[in-house]
Amino acid sequence: MVAVAWEKYLHSYKLYPTPFKSLIVIMEEEIMRLFENGVIMEQVFEADEDAYDGMNVHIKESMDSNHFVAMLRSSISQWTKQRKRGVWIKLPIEHADLVNAAVKEGFWYHHAEPTYLMLVYWISQTPHTIPANASHRVGIGALVINHTGEVLVVQEKNGTFRGTGVWKLPTGVVDEGEDICDAAVREVHEEAGIKAEFIELLAFRQSHKSFFGKSDLFFICMLKPLSYEIHKQDSEIDGAQWMAMEEYAAQPFVKKHEMFNKIAEICLAKKENKYSGFSEVLMTSGFSAKRSYLYFNQKQFTLPEN
Predict the structure, then answer these.
(1) Dihedral sign for Cα atoms in the order 39, 45, 49, 53
(2) Lowest mean pLDDT among 56-65, 151-160, 289-298
(3) Residue 201: partners with Cβ closer than 8 Å, 6 or more residues away
(4) Of 61, 150, 176, 190, which residue is the catalytic one?
(5) Spatial separation of the C-alpha atoms in residues 286 and 128, rounded to whole Å
(6) How many helices (H) and strands (E) does the chain have?
(7) Of the candidates 52, 237, 74, 71, which has an alpha carbon nearest to the alpha carbon of residue 159?
(8) pLDDT at 4 over 60
(9) Which of 56, 176, 179, 251: CA 20 to 30 A from 291?
(10) How confident is the model at residue 25 (pLDDT cuts 50, 70, 90)?
């Protein structure tokens, strides 16, 4: 039928007046782009192939759902023949109208960010090996000890500690792309206006089913203050002060809860130089030239010189 339609089109071209033939030529060029050997070429999405035989599609242009589904089916058909294993579609928020169509074709949600939704599809007949979304949130607590042995503590206006009267270490969440050591320095400056430098990672805690059902990693970091005058963050902090370490550790809330009590004991031991933590060393890995931090106890282990 395609061949017959093509022949009718070529025949009708001769019937048009000359002024219209230039328009017909343009139409002919467009149709020729879609035809090859008398068959319409199926459109497929441009995609980047990853190291695991997956195809990564970035939707950049608007299209109606019918066109989207047609291209999706053609693409998956081609990638199936090429023995690809999975498909990732990064769908910007401005194209959210295509989500329903993708889900009906067998895609499922992988993760979402403020500006896009990531959808996935498994082509292979084997059980899928698509990695799960990020499983952990990362937070820090900062132990800042001044030259007189006092510790920086705050009282929060919001959250679990609001209205409890408990003095606690400055805490916060590590931002995307931010190192643990830098997050600790930033949080201390934001909450108390104290400039500080990272010294050591003292301990860390892992918990599960905490924030939106995700696991949580919390790192206790020791910092050295570079300034001492407190300027608290009025929007989130009700109070901030330097407090004797022993007074902080003796609070009923701290003594009552095993985890808080153990952290306080570690802090006291560190103050008395009876505890050594992990300091950061910037280095490259075998997979990338990008440098990242390795945390380890340098006092008990010395790296060989290159």
Answers:
(1) negative
(2) 289-298
(3) 180, 181, 219, 220, 221, 222, 277, 278, 279, 280, 295
(4) 190
(5) 28
(6) 8, 15
(7) 237
(8) no
(9) 56
(10) low
**Nearest alpha carbon to residue 151 among 257, 234, 246:** 246
Are residues 90 and 56 in contact, defined by beta-carbon separation less than 8 angstroms?
yes
H-assigned helices in the chain: 2-13, 18-34, 65-81, 99-104, 180-192, 245-249, 252-256, 258-271
Cα separations (Å) of 57 from 78, 131, 244?
14, 17, 57
Please count the other Cβ atoms lying within 10 Å of the Cβ belonging to residue 182: 16
- Judge contact between 204 and 220, C-beta under 8 A: yes
**Radius of gyration of the chain from its Cα atoms, rounded to whole angstroms:** 30
End-to-end Cα, the chain, rounded Å: 73
> CA–CA separation, 265 vs 259, rounded Å?
10
Q: Encoding tokens for residue 50?
A: 């990853």
pTM of the model: 0.76
Say what the pLDDT of residue 213 is.
Answer: 86
Both tokens of 96, joined, read: 């959210």
**Structure tokens, 150:** 């006092």
